[in-house]
Amino acid sequence: MEPAVSLAVCALLFLLWVRVKGLEFVLIHQRWVFVCLFLLPLSLIFDIYYYVRAWVVFKLSSAPRLHEQRVRDIQKQVREWKEQGSKTFMCTGRPGWLTVSLRVGKYKKTHKNIMINLMDILEVDTKKQIVRVEPLVSMGQVTALLTSIGWTLPVLPELDDLTVGGLIMGTGIESSSHKYGLFQHICTAYELVLADGSFVRCTPSENSDLFYAVPWSCGTLGFLVAAEIRIIPAKKYVKLRFEPVRGLAAICDKFTHESQRLENHFVEGLLYSLDEAVIMTGVMTDEAEPTKLNSIGSYYKPWFFKHVENYLKTNREGLEYIPLRQYYHRHTRSIFWELQDIIPFGNNPIFRYLFGWMVPPKISLLKLTQGETLRKLYEQHHVVQDMLVPMKCLSQALHTFHNDIHVYPIWLCPFILPSQPGLVHPKGDETELYVDIGAYGEPHVKHFEARSCMRQLEKFVRSVHGFQMLYADCYMNREEFWEMFDGSLYHKLRKQLGCQDAFPEVYDKICKAARH
Hints:
Elements: H1 2-21, H2 23-29, H3 31-60, H4 62-83, E1 90-92, E2 112-114, E3 121-125, E4 130-133, H5 139-148, E5 151-152, H6 164-169, H7 177-180, E6 187-193, E7 199-202, H8 208-213, E8 223-230, E9 232-233, E10 237-246, H9 248-260, E11 266-273, E12 276-285, H10 304-313, E13 318-323, H11 324-328, H12 339-342, H13 349-355, H14 363-368, H15 371-381, E14 383-390, H16 394-404, E15 410-417, E16 432-441, H17 450-463, E17 467-468, H18 478-484, H19 488-496, H20 506-510, H21 512-515
Parallel strand pairs: 1-2
Antiparallel strand pairs: 3-4, 4-8, 5-9, 6-7, 6-8, 10-12, 10-13, 11-12, 11-15, 14-16, 14-17, 15-16
Helix pairs in contact: 1-3, 2-3, 16-17
């Protein structure tokens, strides 16, 4: 009770301070106070509500019974839009602040909002090794259920609040992607409501053009209402090896080598400077050495990226056994390393022991409360980008990131990119090994200017036939965008399915050049 009482007293003092200083001043200059006193408790309440709701729904098996009714309601909304003259584009009615993307979707105010209340796990079929889910099911829901019954997704992206719909319509990746590819590559079927209100199911063999065109389309071909995803048997722990590596050439060689070894279930790198990194490789196992067990997801534990950095500072290799679900969400508590900019003392042992059980704040609530002034400051002085480049270009790419934005740590995650139709595929006809380079934080280059620096980075990514994740700010013009992405199948289907008057083109939905 003592932490709760202390929090209540601090909240009262904070309200008095806000009254004197003004809310905008506090949100910009002392945001950690607002986050600690209000957003952390509110985020905890959100988490408890959605966890209990998902558990009750699954136990009562109510989701499958209600699913068809909800899909019919979506079809009805679309048909009513057509009957009313199709005057504006359509989009989902989910508020923009609820998404994990940092981008503010202004189109929600001008488009016809179709309400899609689909947030449940419909079925787990262990014989077929498939889980069928609705689009708003989160990764937190998926891991909580599947790991409890001994199963998991082959690719389970990191943050709890990422949804299946977002990972399909955008993309998703995890440290197992060197074996299984991106999130879209473990999906076996999509169910959609199209622009005319009709329902369609697509697989690699049924309506295959649509199946391959849906990923990365950002909801501009239809409304996703369900997806079928592969599952694999899970084990209790991840046996994780930590190896500090120095020198850029050695880092690239080691990372590439480990990414090509399919006996590694997981491969990940954290780059702390241009020539210092820790490469991690892991395998699932049911056995653990008790002295090397590390429950890294416990609220009082150090943030994962700080824990990893200790291996670099002490220049030693390490071996740990981490519970599987905690491994999957190892970066969640610190939102990778973004939380250190919001709560500078968040990794302090005292804070972790007293308030760590409420961390992290919901990204959606951070967006909701940031205000226009803070949003513009973040846009100009903060980078959140994932660039996907061929592994053979890793050294060149890291030099470019260092020179153009100079943000550390950098996340390195390998993935296999098969030669399949759609917006994203290798340049040739063969499967190719790529790497996701994730940069999140404050740039440390002189005279950083967001638009010019990011356009320079985007130009490099295009030149090596790489791709930019579309959750982030994108500064390309239309011609540059379609140079990066293969729009041939996408445009064919938009015309064929009557999407041109129903949904904006993906470029117009996500690129800053189109939205401003």
